[in-house]
Amino acid sequence: MKNPETVFRKYRPGDEESIVSVMNSSFDTFRDFGLTKEVWLGYEKIDPGFKAENALVAEYEGKIVGHVQIVRRKVKLGDTLYVNMGGIANVSTIPEVRRRGISTTLLANAIDYCVREGIPLSGLFTGYGGTAHRVYRRVGYEDTALSTSFMGTVDEMRRVKDNCGEANNVQIRHYEKGDEKEILETYVEWSKAYSGIIERSLEYWRKKLVERSTIFTFFYGGFDPGEAFVAVENGRITGYAYVTLCKKKRIPYRPPEAAMIREIAFKPGHFKALSSLIDSIMDFFISEDVKVCEACFPEDEAYLNIFRPFRQMPQSVFMVHVPLIEKLFEEARGELEERLSLTPYVGSRLVIGFETPYGSMKLSLHGGELSLQSEEEPTVKIFFDSNCFTRMLFGIETIQDLIRENMVRIHTTQYLGKVISIIQTLFPKRTWFISPIDHW
After folding, report:
1. SS in 3 state form for 187-224?
2. Tell me: the pLDDT tens digits for 96-154?
């Protein structure tokens, strides 16, 4: 795709100096971090989802003036279902050529890339309401979830500590070499309850959380075992936490007297591991004269009860596009059938048509079996307004929520209650969470 006098193409070796220059001209965070071409090329060694070849650039009069990076991820949509996602990162143009549609075209090319590569989902993080947010909406990205953190002062940290109570038989220690395998197992068990979780391999874990201390994909510091906490019960790891003292690292937009809980997780049924970790971390922060704590965790009862004294703060909006809706449902088919087996309502054949901003999709349900793109006419048609289909995909809102908000219209000759129950079974409510460590 082309604009007058502008050439859009993929990365070529030798582009990195110009790409870094564009990024530094657009983001204070990269300038503060000290981004160089060596650092940019080094991202490939840190994150397997980052490939230099997946950078797209815009050239004006032979000079690179715009850039977008596609970061590959596998994102969790169900109990065991992980779907390929093309993460959109570092959308940038130099100041002199802004408002010419360059970023819009780069985004359109990124969506085309996902289509060519068979990637059914694309996602990004951005601030709500700004120019970038409006551009992303214009090319079809939907506001899907709000990424938040929780903030507390010293007094509030002490109150959190009081909420932890006492825990017998839980030992809290710092990371030791070789812990990462058991810590990863804890992550996998913990993540079963959530959507949005990013799939991690052992190599990914070591690169991001042992060889260095990753804040998120593009910002990191040196690894300090004293900033990794492990909960042990009966000789087995049942929880862990990664924290950061900002006075020891270059953290964009955080003062040196701040500290962060970047990730904290525990095995289901081991709540005392969580409370013991939090208790130890609060002690650690207070002893280090931390003035404000930022904590990132899923918004569910186990965390919210302990962190009640903290204040919830919006960080960014997670936006999603569906370049290949049919491929998405093909990848999800097995899990959808598994969910369908939980409902007693499906007897006679039911053909459901989804009319979404990303195209139409038909699901034929009969006797617990599910087929896609049936030749039959739908007996149910569901029309989705913008900014709601992807929220249902991730379980952030259910079909009942969307009906109450007048975000969907349902045309059917079937009993409406039965239809809603089936859709609710196919797309149940879930807690959404993507750890900042995995952001792109």
Report:
1. HHHHHCCEECCECCCHHHHHHHHCCCEEEECCEEECCC
2. 988 889 999 999 999 999 999 999 999 999 999 999 999 999 999 999 999 999 999 99
Average pLDDT over residues 349-367: 93
Q: For tokens 């802004």, name the residue.
A: 98
Helix (H, G, I), strand (E, B) or coil at 409: strand
Confidence at residue 73, expressed as pLDDT on a 0 to 100 scale? 98
What single letter denotes the amino acid at residue 55?
Answer: A
Encoding tokens for residue 259? 């500290």
Render 257-315 in DSSP notation, one character per residue.
Answer: TEEEEEEEEE-TT-HHHHHHHHHHHHHHHHHTT--EEEE---SSHHHHHHTTTSEEEEE
Q: What is the mean pLDDT of residues 187-193?
A: 96
Compute the mean pLDDT over every residue in the chain, rounded to the nearest whole number. Answer: 94
CB 32 within 8 Å of CB 250? yes
Domains of the chain, earliest start first = 6-140 (3.40.630.30), 147-314 (3.40.630.30), 324-426 (3.30.1050.10)
**pLDDT for residue 250:** 73
DSSP secondary structure letters along 63-109? EEEEEEEEEEEEEE-SSS-EEEEEEEEEEEE-GGGTTSSHHHHHHHH
Q: In what order do the strands lie in the sheet with 6-10?
A: 6-10, 50-60, 63-76, 82-93, 121-126, 311-321, 142-153, 292-295, 258-266, 236-245, 228-233, 171-174
The DSSP element (H or E) to which 328 belongs, if any, is helix 325-340
Q: How far apart are CA 230 and CA 276, in angstroms?
A: 10
- Give the span between the Cα atoms of 231 and 339, in whole angstroms: 34
Distance of CA 281 to the CA centre of its chain: 25
Closest by Cα among 20, 57, 23 to 36: 20
Dihedral over alpha carbons 38, 41, 44, 46 (to 10 degrees): 20
Reported as a single tens digit per residue, the pLDDT across 248-268 is: 887 778 899 999 999 999 999
